[in-house]
Amino acid sequence: MTVSELFRGSATQLVSGAKALSDYFEGVLGGDKYKKYLEHHSKHHPDEPPVSERQWWRDYNKWQDDNPQGRCC
After folding, report:
1. What share of the chain is helix, strand, coil (3-state, %, to 5)?
2. Is 3 helix (H, G, I), strand (E, B) or coil?
3. Is the dihedral of CA 66, 54, 36, 15 positive or negative?
4. How many domains does the chain have?
5. What's the CA gap between 7 and 13, in Å, rounded?
6. Which of residues 53 and 7 earns the better pLDDT score?
7. Chain segment 7-43, per-residue pLDDT in tens
8. Which domain holds residue 24?
9. pLDDT at 5 (0 to 100)
């Protein structure tokens, strides 16, 4: 194995690990909620255009303010 091949494999693993870590934190912090909304929307409401991400977050935050539940913040 050459140094070039070794470096290429290490870089690929590093990028893969960074992506996995990023996806994990996005899920923990709730950053994937809009992505899940889009998946749900495309399955259940294919004829209607989805709301923009900005509008979705506004609506979601308003819903949270109007319906307080047990959460840390």
Report:
1. 75, 0, 25
2. helix
3. negative
4. 2
5. 10
6. 53
7. 677 778 888 888 888 888 888 887 889 999 999 999 9
8. 1-29
9. 65
